[in-house]
Amino acid sequence: MSQARVAILLSGRGSNFLELHGAMVRKEVPAEIALVVSNVAEAPGLEKARSLRLPTVCLPHRHEATREAHEAKVLAALGRAEVDWVCLAGYMRLLSASFVAEYPERILNIHPSLLPAFPGRNAQEQALEWGVRVSGCTVHLVDEELDHGPIVMQRVVPVHDDDNPISLSARILVEEHRIYPEALGRLLTERWRISGRRVIFS
Which residues contact 106 (CB under 8 A, 6 or more apart)? Predict the structure, then answer.
């Protein structure tokens, strides 16, 4: 089986990127990281990628006049790296419809809630404010809307009475690290289709 060439887009620490990379190194996911892209020059995840001797590029969005101009540079970098799939790992930019159209059903994201509940930033704070008894994480294919595309996998995490955003985030992150490589591996090795708002594995 040939290895898929995966690009990682990140803006921060990159812990999910490291879990994906580790699963690839262990041959649990038939893929390789072809490029790590960050829009933040000081992102810890970018430095970690460099320390692993992975191809990296930093493309700060604040230097660009428009979102389209920034995305054009990102897409050009992905094209040069001959990327098959794109995995978002804490990438704090909403992708445009034209960007998504370049990799239809091949952009993956993980979000720290049970979507469609609590999209956007501060999902853990939203969960606590609403008083939910369970939260979790969701891996989904990306479309042009925020945290909206077809759901691939979810994992439930209980919300404890004494939880705060930090403790809940930490417990959800443990499951994120498990579910993201598993979801990518299944998409690459199993037959699947999209039915309504979910991915169905054959």
Answer: 84, 85, 86
Is 70 a residue of the active site?
no
Task: State the amino acid at position 74 in one-letter form.
Answer: V
- Do 156 and 194 lie in a common domain? yes
Domain count of the chain?
2
Q: What are the φ/ψ torsions at residue 169 (nearest 5 degrees)?
A: -60, -40
Choosing from 111, 140, 148, 177, the catalytic residue is: 111
126 and 81 together in one domain: no
| Same domain flag for 116 and 79 | no
Q: Give 3-state DSSP helix, strand, coil % of the chain, rounded to 5.
A: 35, 25, 40
Q: Do 83 and 140 have their domain in common? A: no
Tens of each residue's pLDDT in the chain, 202 residues: 579 999 999 999 999 999 999 999 999 999 999 999 999 999 999 999 999 999 999 999 888 889 899 999 999 999 999 999 999 999 999 999 999 999 999 999 999 999 999 999 999 999 999 999 999 999 999 999 988 999 999 999 999 999 999 999 999 999 999 999 999 999 999 999 999 999 999 9
Closest CA to 113 of 146, 80, 86: 146
The H-or-E segment that residue 22 falls in is helix 15-25
Range of the domain at 168: 109-202
What CATH number is associated with residue 137?
A: 3.40.50.170
